[in-house]
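Subject: Sanity check before I submit

Could someone independently write out the structure tokens for this chain? I want to compare against mine line by line before I put it in a report. The sequence has 113 residues.
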Amino acid sequence: MVNKQELDATYGEYGNEFMLEIMNIFISEFDGKMEIIERAVKERDMVTLQAVSHPLKGNIGQFMDHEAHMIATELNEKAKNDDQSNLDEVFARFKEAATATNEQLKELRKEYE
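---
Independent answer below. Compare away.
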């Protein structure tokens, strides 16, 4: 879950326009990145998985969603270490958490318009 108080404390000084910009970028790129990650998991393409999951992990972290960030880190570490054990389970948790972050940002950005 996005922590709005932490988000505002960290980025509030940059103003609403900045907040909207980073939210809109995340939202607009989310579906495409998730498709690539899902395909990489299915194909066990750990190079692609790491290449796409690593920046997405950082993007989620910037929105102060600590739970989703922890799961994204776990997924990224599996890719980095070529660890395919429980990969489908970790991906399922990641997809659920990251999708929740995306949906929350869609609602939250209304507060910055």
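---
OP: Matches mine. For the report I'm noting this point. The radius of gyration is 14 Å.
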